[in-house]
Amino acid sequence: MARWQPDAGERLRVAALDLFEERGFDQTSVAQIAQRAELTERTFYRHYADKREVLFQGQEQLNDALAAGVAEAPELGPLAVADEVLVRAASFFDDERRPFSRRRQQVIDANPELVERERAKMAHLTDAVAAGFRARGVPDVRAAVAAGTVVSAFQVTFELWVAPAETRDFTVLGRAVVGELRAALSADAAL
Amino acid sequence: MARWQPDAGERLRVAALDLFEERGFDQTSVAQIAQRAELTERTFYRHYADKREVLFQGQEQLNDALAAGVAEAPELGPLAVADEVLVRAASFFDDERRPFSRRRQQVIDANPELVERERAKMAHLTDAVAAGFRARGVPDVRAAVAAGTVVSAFQVTFELWVAPAETRDFTVLGRAVVGELRAALSADAAL
């Protein structure tokens, strides 16, 4: 970030979200975002590759953090790993971020292209988590199904966290989701 | 299917797959598919809504069958339900279908738009399975995470089944995948 434009990235993000809500994502241009933020397009592109990136920036850091959760989980059971992964995720999704995340989610849900982007992200996250299991010696197929379970727990937790009336924090929700998964599995007599 | 054009749907499907492989999905038109099958475009549209549908037709029947597996599973644990769902799926994925499914998968994997379509299908399947759990009295969050686990087992089984050198049938693979999930969960001391 250039010294003479403190918080330019943040101003652009706020301007973009406002415009996406007012006009729709497709009807908003980078020029309009820059104008609303009283910055230049050149400044925009110094912060974001395109207007979609305003919504998805930081995903790689999140993926890396969640993969680190797999690498450092004390046990390799999917529930133990889900617990660890959700604790890492909680540091990304704090209450300060929640209002932005909620508005962002509504913009995404209204736009099929963005929904697809979100699904692709989940698929990549699942691959990353499976790689994390494999790196710890878990065989391929086991790693793949375990990763599906872990990412499913993350996804359900995130959906609860951004839901309009939800006030519980991410860690509390994550613990509840893993508890529900445990309860579901307790119905599996054969386990 | 019109009586004077036996197997027109099948001929169109073969022609489409041949062309998708030869030229790529994007470079193939409905007119070319019809011509290759020695049928008219009108006949094509009597069988498929568009060229993409040639690859995705039958998905609703599959979803319905898998949802019925949730409705009729003897127990409500995710592993028991996955077992039941995979047995239903096996009737769709028999050895006669496998060569087509393999070629189809390669066409899909080569085209981002088709990959997205496939991901959307999995998301809808997850919703359908979750609805099946809820219909049997499983609370919302539990239904959502259990569905994620079940669909993950289906997805991994399907991926194995279409893999180039795989010869085991769908039922055998499904049983192996659920076994791997069970083995993974046995590492969860807290379960």
UniProtKB/TrEMBL annotation, chains A, B:
InterPro entries from the UniProt entry: Homeodomain-like_sf (IPR009057), HTH-type_TetR-like_transc_reg (IPR050109), HTH_TetR (IPR001647)
Keywords: DNA-binding, Transcription, Transcription regulation
Pfam families per the UniProt record, alphabetical: TetR_N
Location of the DNA-binding region in this protein: 29-48
UniProt-recorded Gene Ontology molecular function terms: DNA-binding transcription factor activity; transcription cis-regulatory region binding
Domain HTH tetR-type: 6-66
Name used for this protein in its record: HTH tetR-type domain-containing protein
Organism: Luteimicrobium xylanilyticum
Source taxonomy: Bacteria, Bacillati, Actinomycetota, Actinomycetes, Micrococcales
